[in-house]
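Bumping my old thread because nobody answered last time. Still need a sequence for this structure:
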């Protein structure tokens, strides 16, 4: 006899009040029974992810798997090695059907079809890019690929814009290359897709553009000075603030012994124009080398700047609401294995990955304090120095 049937049986011969009390118990227990049953079927394991990493020295792209429950990285296969390519930047289509890889030495872009098991198949011959292409990004709509080219004309670099065929992945150039000041390297879109920003490391600047229907237009005041070596960019989730890592910038007292800093800019929501936020630039209390990669946590609470090595290598700041100003968290900088090749979070926001000179370092982080903790087995060797990395949603 089930518990509910036994309880009903207990009603026999009882007064009205006890019957009411027992009935209430039955209803509560029944509700708990249904709740427990439904929750057991609703619980799902964290999703695993695939990720792709360029290996410039090998001339190939590596497939890795990320365990959703632990963040552990497992090395998979890689595309055939080809000399003379030096693949660096890469971009994943939102449909997860195509991967675009920029070949810096060959001045080309390779297009890969992504198979159901995550492996890559080259789709035709690489197409021409600009001179010494570097960074790549796809707009949030998935319709356009943008690629930075280090050299174009008159010591200026450029951005190439391509439209993407959603069914075949084929790229078609949109207009002519757009001047983007000296040596444009890192590139990103705001989440809205309205604005594009690139770093110009050799002049310590950031160049901003508005973007509509494949057309780039300089934002007012562009380019704007950021800091020596301006190398990497990150934007907050609300498209209010832009953060730029300046690895070789000098600092004013009392931080004159620290190399490098992070500039913070306010983004004008109407024009995309940048204005330095109060207190910028922000730096660490200790640091012999400046950050060359930067990332904003998906919670929107923290900014991380990462440097090579394992001494004072991970800078962590909390983001002040409304102003975007950065405040170093307790324990920062953290002396943990890091590197300056890239810094990114997985789509779930649970794990933080850093490109080192020998592989990939992986961390979880405390959502309250921002403090990072190494994932078991980190850093993960991948057989060669990585270029850039993207993770599938």
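Sorry it took so long. Here it is:
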């Amino acid at each position: 006899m089930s518990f509910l049937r036994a309880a009903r049986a207990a009603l026999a011969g009882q007064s009205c009040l006890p019957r009411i009390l027992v009935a209430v118990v039955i209803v509560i227990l029944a509700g708990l029974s249904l709740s427990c049953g439904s929750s057991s079927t609703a619980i799902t394991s964290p999703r695993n992810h695939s990720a792709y990493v360029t290996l410039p020295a090998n001339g190939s792209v590596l497939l890795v798997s990320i365990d959703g429950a632990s963040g552990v990285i497992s090395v998979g296969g890689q595309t055939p090695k080809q000399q003379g390519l030096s693949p660096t930047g890469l971009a994943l289509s939102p449909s997860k059907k195509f991967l675009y890889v920029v070949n810096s030495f060959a001045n080309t872009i390779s297009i890969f079809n992504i198979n159901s098991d995550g492996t890559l198949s080259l789709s035709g011959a690489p197409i021409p890019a600009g001179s010494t292409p570097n960074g790549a990004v796809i707009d949030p709509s998935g319709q356009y690929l943008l690629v930075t080219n280090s050299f174009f004309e008159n010591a200026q670099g450029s951005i190439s814009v391509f439209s993407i065929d959603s069914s075949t992945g084929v790229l078609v150039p949109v207009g002519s290359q757009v001047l983007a000041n000296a040596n444009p390297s890192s590139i990103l879109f705001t989440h809205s897709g309205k604005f594009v920003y690139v770093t110009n490391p050799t002049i310590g600047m950031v160049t901003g553009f508005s973007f509509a229907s494949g057309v780039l237009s300089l934002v007012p005041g562009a380019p704007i000075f950021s800091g020596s070596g301006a190398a990497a960019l990150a934007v907050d989730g609300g498209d209010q603030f832009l953060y730029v890592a300046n690895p070789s910038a000098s600092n004013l007292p009392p931080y004159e012994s620290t190399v490098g800093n992070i500039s913070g800019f306010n983004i004008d929501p109407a024009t995309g124009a940048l204005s330095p936020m109060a207190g910028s630039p922000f730096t660490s209390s200790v640091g012999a080398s400046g950050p060359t990669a930067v990332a904003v946590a998906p919670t929107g609470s923290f900014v991380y700047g990462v440097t090579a090595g394992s001494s004072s290598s991970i800078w962590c700041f909390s983001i002040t609401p409304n102003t975007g100003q950065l405040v170093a968290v307790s324990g920062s900088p953290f002396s943990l294995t890091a590197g300056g090749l890239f810094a990114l979070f997985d789509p779930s926001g649970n794990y933080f990955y850093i490109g080192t000179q020998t592989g990939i370092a992986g961390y979880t982080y405390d959502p309250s304090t921002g403090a990072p903790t190494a994932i078991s087995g980190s850093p993960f060797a991948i057989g060669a120095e990585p270029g850039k990395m993207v993770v599938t949603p």
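Helices lie at 3-9, 16-42. Let me know if any region looks off to you.
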